Structures are given as structure tokens and as C-alpha cells.
Amino acid sequence: MPDDRSTSSRPALVRYLQALGEGLPFPENGYRADYVNAIGVQLRAARGESLKVSAAKVQEGLPADAPAGDKEQYIDALIARMRALLGAAGYESVQELALAAMLDDIREDLESFGVRFDTWSSERAIASAGAVERVLERLAALRPHLSEGRRAMAAHQHLWRQRGSRAGARQRPENLFRTGPGLPPG
Fold first, then answer.
1. Which class for 42: exposed (0-12), middle (13-18), buried (19 or more C-beta within 10 A)?
2. What's the alpha-carbon Rg for the chain, to the nearest Å?
3. Which residues contact residue 79 at a Cβ distance below 8 angstroms, ignoring those fewer than 6 apart?
4. Could you count the other beta carbons within 10 Å of the beta carbon of residue 9?
5. What's the rounded Cα separation, in Å, for the pair 7 and 9?
């Protein structure tokens, strides 16, 4: 199952439902870039009303959003609700469309500066191919050479394996490790 680190698919679902006339409020913790509105409209054009659910059904039983409630808890609950209502395939299709739209925008922006990449890789594709797990295993083998990083590495491995944990996505390995004897500085 894909993780929820995509900052565009969550609000794109809300914008999609809004484009279909549903009175769903935009989450306080939602990414508010203008292109998210366009992704919601693209999603409507691509999928019509096939993913439509009522705002009341989406909001039923959700905790309060900020400022009255916790915006992290709300967005986590919103993600879980939308995934449950749309099913894995529906939710995945939204993520794929949102990521493709973002990548197209990034390509256009870079090309306007004369920058062209031959190969593109997403963190999501790398993670789903098992590359992150393999690197973490290799780092675990280096544990005797790491100073003060053992607990941090174990914590990072645990958070990474909790796919969908934004806490794991915010942590960066380079912030968790210090080099030991015989290893180059990070």
C-alpha cells in the first residue's frame, strides 16, 4: 500500500469533491498551492463522479480540525476515511494522477530554465522497490562503526517501516548519524 507522504493527493481529493459541489472544508494542514486546485479539476475531468462521496460521509466521526482541534490528528483521520471510502484502487489512482500532474509542472518549470533530466526517480518508487530497506540493512551492518547513532538508526528504521508515518518521512538519516573511526564524514 502506498504511503501518504504525497502533499498533493490529500488536498487534491478535497478539491476534487469541492469541484463536484461537495461542501467539504479544506484541511488546515492541507497543502494550499494553486496547482492543487488544478489537480482537483483534472481529477474531475479524468474520473468524472466515479470517486464522489458526500462531504457528510467524509466528515462523519472525524476529530475537529484546527484551530479547535489537532490538525495532525484531523488530517490522519481524513486520509484514513478517504482511503476507506475510495478503496485502495481509487485512492491509488488519485495519488498517481496528483504525482503525474506535479511532475509535469516540475518538468515544465525546469525546461523553462534550460534544465532537462534524462532520468526521473521518485522516493515512492525507490521505497516500494525495497531500496530503502536494503540501505537500512547495510547501515545496520555498520553499527559497530557508528558512534551515538545506534538508537537513532533503530528509531529511524522503525519509523520508516511504519509506511504512512509522516514522522518517519520528516526524519533524515544524515541528521541521525555521526561517523566513527574509519568512516568518511557525512
1. buried
2. 20
3. 4, 10, 164
4. 28
5. 6
In the prediction, which pLDDT does 124 show? 78
The C-alpha atoms of residue 83 and residue 98 are separated, in whole angstroms, by 15
The continuous run of DSSP H or E covering 74 comes out as helix 71-112
Distance (Å, rounded) from C-alpha 47 to C-alpha 63? Answer: 29
The predicted pLDDT at position 3 comes to 45
Query: Splitting the chain (186 residues) into consecutive groups of 10 residues, what average pLDDT does each group show?
Result: 50 87 88 81 89 92 92 90 91 86 89 91 84 87 65 68 50 43 46
C-alpha cell of 68?
Answer: 479547535
Contacts of 101 (CB under 8 A, 6+ apart): 8, 35, 38, 39, 42
pLDDT at 170: 44
Cell of 168: 518517519
